[in-house]
Amino acid sequence: MKPIITFARWGNYTIAFETLFKKMGLEVIPPEKINSQTILEGAKLSPEMFCFPLKATLGSYLPALKKGANTIFMVQNAGGSCRQRYYGRIQEKVLKEQGWEINFIDFKTTPKDIYSELKKISRVSTWQIFQAARFFLKELHLIERIEKEAQFLRPREVEKRQTDKILDWALLEIDEIDDGRRLLKLKKEILKKLSKIKIDKEKDVLKVGLIGEIYTVCDPTINFEIEKKLGWERIEVHREMDITYHLKKAIFPWKDWIIQRKINPYLKSTVGGHGRDAIYEMLNYVKKDFDGVIQLLPAMCMPEVTVRPILEKIHQESGIPFLSLSLDEQVAEVGIDTRLEAFVDVVKNYHKNI
């Protein structure tokens, strides 16, 4: 059976993952943008008490499977009490029970495992895999770069929503590129357009740190476009949690030692997932005099629920405004917006009084 690849949708990173597989000569049916219907379909098939990303990613496979995809790639990268390491087995079992004949490839994020699985499925040379991975990293870096530029520009732009228009255009253009030279040319064009956005340099911009579980933090369709909404309220969002952050942790093992040393007064052991990272990031935001911190987590996410009392303690000790938002298939956007509006008011009052 010829492999026709699909994978879980993950925000803007979906573009880079699609290109990675295509550069290795694989046929790909990319997952469609997640919406409420996608999530509900995934939730219907999922174990009720399992965490939200399993349901959302399961739902994101279904349209691609209906179009002919027969091979699913799932990266497993979690320890401690995080249940993400079971996603592959559970999703494979659920889909096969529904009658789908699929090959489910579930592997760890070590370079050896990634290379082994890509080599097995693509049957291309090591050099071609290297070239595909290299282009993937370039595309990944550009996506993260323009996301960070947008975080800075949104609260300062003179013409409202101009940043988002350019960002949407840029992502569409990146999705069409599969050549290194064209990507470099496009990068220069995107950064030039962003640099021409008129900003109010005198505007008193507030700063809020976004922490939590990586899927809910990085995917704007899952977190109801929280970065955009805060930016429109003249709040600059900072988000350390992204793929590059984890690549650095994998390449530089002492990063974990630095994290543990920083959070040791609050937590002396691992809890899995991104729990320790959340504590570390919040402590950094307090040290840098941020005006607030928001934790995003899937409902019933064990690592994030475990560290939430510690984050509350840091909030009480420092006085920094703190909001924890749990997301699942039953959460409505209007409810999130109401809590966000109240939090923005608290942040603005806090900023006036410091």
Total beta-strand segments: 8
What is the molecular shape?
A: globular
CATH first level of the largest domain: Alpha Beta
Query: Tell me about the biggest sheet?
Result: 4 strands, parallel
Low-confidence stretches: none
- The portion of residues forming beta strands comes to 5-15%
State Rg. Answer: 21 Å
Number of H/I helices? 15
Number of domains: 3
State the secondary-structure class: alpha/beta
Helix % is 55-70%
CATH architecture of the largest domain: 3-Layer(aba) Sandwich
| CATH topology group of the largest domain | Rossmann fold
The termini sit apart by 64 Å
Mean pLDDT: 92
Order of helices and strands: EHEHHEHEHHHHEHHEHHHEHEH
Strand order, biggest sheet? 2-1-3-4
Describe the structure.
The protein is α/β, with parallel strands linked by helices and 354 residues long. The protein folds into three domains: 4-122, Rossmann fold; 140-153 and 157-202; 203-354, Rossmann fold. The protein is 56% helix and 12% strand. The chain has 15 helices and eight strands. The protein has helices spanning 13-23, 36-45, 52-66, 87-97, 111-122, 126-153, 162-176, 180-195, 214-218, 226-232, 243-251, 254-263, 275-287, 302-318, 333-353, and strands spanning 4-7, 27-28, 71-76, 103-108, 206-212, 235-238, 292-298, 322-327. It has a four-stranded parallel beta sheet, sandwiched between helices. A four-stranded parallel beta sheet has the order 6-5-7-8, with helices on both faces. Helix 6 runs antiparallel to helix 7 (162-176) and helix 7 packs antiparallel against helix 8 (180-195). The radius of gyration is 21 Å and the shape is globular.
